[in-house]
Amino acid sequence: MGPGRPAASASGLEGRARPGKIVLFGSGEMAPSGRRGHAVAMADFEPPVKVAVLETPAGFELNSARVAGRVADFIRERLGEFRPRVLVLPARKRWTPFSPDDPYLVAPLLEADYIFMGPGSPTYAIRQLQGSVAWRYLVARHRQGAALGLASAAAIAVSAWALPVYEIYKAGHDPHWVRGLDLFGDFGLQLAIVSHWNNQEGGEEVDTSRCFMGRERFEAMRRFLPPEVVILGIDEHTMAVFDFQREMVEVLGLGRVTIVRADGTQEVEAGATFPIRWLGAIRIPPPIEVQPPPGALGFPQPVLSPEAAALIREREAARQRKDWATADALRERLRSMGYEVQDTREGPRWRPLGDPTAPWQPL
Predict the structure, then answer these.
(1) pLDDT band at 355 (very low <50, low <70, confident <90, very high)
(2) What pLDDT shows up at residue 238?
(3) Within 13 Å and on the Cβ side, how many CA atoms surround 308?
(4) Whole-number mean pLDDT of the chain?
(5) 38-66 burial string, b = 16+ CB within 10 Å, else e?
(6) Under a CB-based contact definition with an 8 Å cutoff, are residues 361 and 348 in contact?
């Protein structure tokens, strides 16, 4: 089933495009438990599924390309049944050549079936994406039916009120909340999403639950939130899957989801579902139509990078001298880059990893 499929619902919005799923990861987006979250998001689309990994939350880090690249590699290698075509969008920082305000850089978001954002800094992601072209494209594409995967920092950043984790935990700022990207506001929900809810990295010495805030400090912080805001705590290696077709949330993974409202707290174990209305008076916003700029490129057709071509030649030379260990190591390196190689009498051939329908290409 593709995006934008019509559906009847309790809201009475028959015949109108519905937003895609939203998968909130408490952590573990590259763990075996997290694989199911990606699979649930991608299952609504016919292969090959177009996946865009937005680099922005980690854009301040010197290795931000690798941070996003690891997620891209995981999706390519572990979700091969969807034949994913994965593209990392390096929308790292405003007023640079890699700006989230560059419509040509982020145009592939408008074609993506599944858009993922993950680790980094929640407040950095908010500063870079608030009012940006990238955020406008992401929201529009989700309203048209694309699925979203939001892990760790990105899950916090899309809150109505976001937790400034690093500022409080690392830099010693006084406890406070900041205005977030408010992804769920148009759905009638006022959420403060807190990933790493059951974190135990501090061991017996320090309470690092509630995303490193600790129970005592977090309870005090609750008083700073408007009373209508609902806190959604997501345990590590746990996912909350928002399904706007059914208007339900499914909990997957190893832990639980904690719902904290002014009138009390509820915990939902993995394997269970609950109505979205537990989080507020749900409404389904209309689709948004956005056109890419003239001449913008979407998901590119598979091409062989110069680096990959050099590695294929190096591997062929290793095979000729019967250095099988080196040849095998280079094959795995090429797989990590998104290519598979086939050896033939006429020489090596390649195709994109995870797309068995793609024709083999000569070097």
Answers:
(1) low
(2) 98
(3) 22
(4) 91
(5) bbbbbebbebbbbbbbbbbbbbebeebbe
(6) no
